[in-house]
Amino acid sequence: xxxxxxxxxxxxxxxxxxxxxxxxxxxxxxxxxxxxxxxxxxxxxxxxxxxxxxxxxxxxxxxxxxxxxxxxxxxxxxxxxxxxxxxxxxxxxxxxxxxxxxxxxxxxxxxxxxxxxxxxxxxxxxxxxxxxxxxxxxxxxxxxxxx
Length: 147
What we know:
The structure is a single chain. This protein has 147 residues and is mainly α. 67% of the residues lie in helices and 0% in strands. The chain has five helices and no strands. Helix 4 (66-89) packs antiparallel against helix 5. The longest helix is centred in the C-terminal third of the chain and has 25 residues, at 116-140. The radius of gyration is 18 Å and the shape is elongated. The mean pLDDT is 82.
């Protein structure tokens, strides 16, 4: 039997979707509240690390393995660079807010940040995938001992 006890597995199964959704929420609302891409990505990585610790690496790697982590990391970096390139294309620079909205930075309006939620989400996915890959490599090379 891999992983931890059935109680830990059950609680992890119930809580992990909320942790993942909270990480996405923190990344998307970083232009309105404290947070952003990096803390959202850390929370997303923490969700997958929790799943790995509770169920074992074989089960978690069936969901999100090193290959999918590398692909997510690369696609998130590409999305970030595309947003910057589009900022230059539409004039103004790397972080030019080319997605215009009627309420710039208005509280409780997710779409008021223009392109910042997209940039924050890209950073969050990149950080989440990178931190999970670091954890996975440490677990794979036995730097982190399992019971």
